[in-house]
Q: What sequence folds into this?
């Protein structure tokens, strides 16, 4: 099964699917298939690719909001909401933080009755071989912690409930 990612390239949506990895990386990008047969890192922010038998030198830089990629004489802005950032806010309503993917709890950093602030790390989960910090979406008080360390959970499981600070 292909893995898919959604990007924004120069503010236009692009869906990228990895079709196969061996012997050549086959990528489907907005219904256009390309084959990447070689990737060589030249420096920390430059690499060369062989894409459909054509050599491309690619330079990149990153800031908080985007990755800037330069090739073929043009600089492109690539925006991607990585899994960690997405997971930090996915499944969050006003009062309930739900899991947006199945996983296991690595660590809990809060208990019922604790006061928390926007951005505080409430729990650390592991999903898809990544450790992800789930942060508080706002200031509040922990109403319920529905999961403990080493417990597994399914997608949409209610992990933590918040209530307004009094």
A:
């Amino acid at each position: 099964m292909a893995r898919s990612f959604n990007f924004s390239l120069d503010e236009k949506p692009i869906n990228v699917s990895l079709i196969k990895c061996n012997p050549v990386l086959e990528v489907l990008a907005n219904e256009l298939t390309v084959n990447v047969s070689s990737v060589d890192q030249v420096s920390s922010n430059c690499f060369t690719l062989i894409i459909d038998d054509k050599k491309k030198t690619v330079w990149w830089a990153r800031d908080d909001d985007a990755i800037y990629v330069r090739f073929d004489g043009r600089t492109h802005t690539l925006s991607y909401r990585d899994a960690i950032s997405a997971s930090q806010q996915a499944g969050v309503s006003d009062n309930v933080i739900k899991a947006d993917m199945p996983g296991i709890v690595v660590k809990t950093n809060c208990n019922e009755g604790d006061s928390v602030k926007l951005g505080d790390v409430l729990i650390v989960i592991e999903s898809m071989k990544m450790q992800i910090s789930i942060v508080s979406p706002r200031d509040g008080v922990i109403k319920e912690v529905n999961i403990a360390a080493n417990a597994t959970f399914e997608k949409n499981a209610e992990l933590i409930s918040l209530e307004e600070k009094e």
Q: What stands out?
A: The mean pLDDT is 83. The domain at 3-79 is CATH 3.30.700.30 (Glycoprotein, Type 4 Pilin). Residues 83-89 form the longest helix (7 residues).
